[in-house]
Design goal:
The chain is an alpha/beta fold. It has six helices and ten strands.
Length: 172
Amino acid sequence: MRSSIIIPTHNCGQLLVETLRSVKPELGSGDEVIIVDDGSTDGTRELLADLLEDPRFRYFYQVGSGGPSAPRNRGVLNAKGKYLFFFDSDDIMLPGKLSSSIAALEMFPESGLVFTNFASVNENGEILRDRFLDGYELIGKLQFDGEPALPSLIGLWPAPISRGKISSALPE
């Protein structure tokens, strides 16, 4: 399995449908999406019924934990992919994000992290702040091979973080 995209959700069914529709065209046969529903009462599973027919989408339901950490941890524990990606249930994946992130990780196998910029968008789809991270002074100073590190930060950790190391540190 190439990658696992982990998405916690709680009562965001309509937004999650949009998120998954943006992710689906980016998936290859070796990718999966793990949705961990943290006690939704808005009919999230029913809203996702058509998308869940795709075997690359895996759905887990758990009693509400009160935040996204426990669902993310459950997603990591169930992930089969070599690479883990974390999305929120209101995120939209732009075309090429998954493949370019994986290409960056494969180009620099000693890296343990790729971090990309993003835009903040309101409920009407209007961009509130493009390239959100550009406004942070520290991020603007980060460089890779003498060039600005954005749009992607690669190699912030000296060695890859294996899923086994992450999984062993997570509460069940």
